[in-house]
Write a structure and sequence with these properties.
5-stranded antiparallel β-sheet, 6-stranded antiparallel β-sheet, 20 strands, mainly beta
C-alpha cells in the first residue's frame, strides 16, 4: 500500500470548467514537508565595495540573495530587501519601488527629499519615505542604505497604496539626544540591550516604523557583548560604528566592517560582541511588525 506522504499532487478527475481544472490536492502526509533553502547569514561586503567605488554611477545596489533563497524576486531575507543607494553630487534617484515605504539611513553625503513633505538630510540621518516613488536628491556625493518590504508584497502579488504612510525624518542630532537620555537610565535583566526604537505618530501604539517592519539603533559599550538570544523575526543589520567587533550567528563568526550589511536568519541563536575601545552601534531592521501582530515573536535569551 502506498504511504500517504508518497502520493504526488492530485488533479481533479473530470473538471467541468477551467476554474475546476485549476484545483490541486495534497494531503496531511505531504503538504507540510516542504524543504526550503536556509537563509544565509551573508554580509554583502562586495555589494558595499561596488556601491562605494569612486566611479559608481547613481543607482541602487541590491543586497540580493534570492537565488540562495529560491525566490523569484530580489530578496535579502524572505520578506525584506536591503540596498545601497549611490547618488552622485547634483543628481537624483527616484525610488520607484513596489514597497509600502522605504527605510533610509544616510551613510555619507547631503541632500534633500523634494515634494510636499520635503526635508534636508545629512550623515547619520534616518528617514521613512512613503511608498510610491520618493526621490533622493544629492547636493554632495552620497551613499544611503535602504530597506523595504518588497519581497512581502511580491509574495502576495500586491501593489502599495501611495501615501499610506507619511514621510518621517529622524535627524542625527535628535537620535543622539535620545541615546543620551537612555544613558541616564537603568535597565532590568530582561532588557535586550540599550537601543533607540524608531516609530511614528501614526504607528505609536505598535512601536513599529511600518506595519510590518521594526527599526532600532542598538549600542554596545566597550568591552561588552549582547548575550545570546533568538527571535522568530529575521534581521538585517547595518554596522555603523565599532572597533574589532563581531557577531555570532548560528555558530558562525561574522566580523564587522563599517557600512556592511549582515543577515540574522529567523530563529538563529546570535550575539554581538564589542572588545574594542569605542561604543559599538548597529542599525537593525526586522520583519518584527508581522510577528508582533501574529503574537509569534518568540524572543528569548539563551543564557542566564
Amino acid at each position: 500500500m502506498t504511504d500517504m506522504a508518497d502520493l504526488p499532487v492530485q488533479l481533479p478527475a473530470a473538471p467541468q470548467s477551467a476554474a475546476a481544472a485549476r484545483a490541486r490536492f495534497f494531503n496531511s502526509g505531504n503538504a507540510f514537508n516542504i524543504k526550503l533553502p536556509p537563509v544565509p547569514a551573508a554580509d554583502f561586503a562586495a555589494v558595499l565595495e561596488t556601491a562605494e567605488a569612486p566611479d559608481a554611477p547613481t543607482g541602487l545596489y541590491d543586497c540580493d540573495q534570492s537565488q540562495a533563497l529560491g525566490c523569484a524576486f530580489p530578496a535579502t531575507t524572505p520578506l525584506m530587501l536591503a540596498r545601497y543607494a549611490r547618488i552622485r553630487a547634483g543628481e537624483s534617484l527616484n525610488l520607484a519601488l513596489n514597497a509600502n515605504a522605504v527605510i533610509a539611513c544616510v551613510l555619507r553625503g547631503t541632500g534633500d527629499v523634494p515634494g510636499a513633505d520635503s526635508f534636508a538630510w545629512g550623515p547619520g540621518d534616518i528617514a521613512l519615505l512613503p511608498g510610491g516613488a520618493p526621490t533622493l536628491r544629492a547636493a554632495t556625493d552620497s551613499l544611503v542604505w535602504i530597506v523595504t518590504n518588497e519581497p512581502l508584497l511580491a509574495l502576495e502579488g500586491l501593489r502599495p497604496t501611495p501615501g499610506a504612510l507619511p514621510a518621517i525624518h529622524y535627524p542625527a542630532a535628535e537620535t543622539e539626544r535620545q541615546l543620551a537620555l537612555l544613558a541616564t537610565t537603568t535597565t532590568s535583566p530582561g532588557t535586550s540591550g540599550l537601543a533607540v526604537i524608531f516609530s511614528s505618530q501614526e504607528l505609536e501604539s505598535g512601536r513599529n516604523i511600518t506595519p510590518s517592519l521594526t527599526l532600532s539603533l542598538n549600542t554596545l559599550p566597550p568591552g561588552e557583548y549582547q548575550r545570546p538570544h533568538r527571535h522568530n523575526s529575521a534581521a538585517i543589520t547595518l554596522i555603523l560604528q565599532g572597533e574589532n567587533c563581531h557577531s555570532m550567528v548560528g555558530g558562525q563568526r561574522c566580523p564587522w566592517r563599517i557600512g556592511t550589511t549582515l543577515v540574522t536568519p529567523a530563529g538563529d541563536p546570535h550575539s554581538h560582541h564589542n572588545p574594542g575601545a569605542v561604543q559599538a552601534r548597529f542599525l537593525i531592521v526586522q520583519d518584527g511588525g508581522l510577528h508582533y501582530h501574529a503574537r509569534t515573536m518568540g524572543f528569548s535569551f539563551l543564557e542566564d
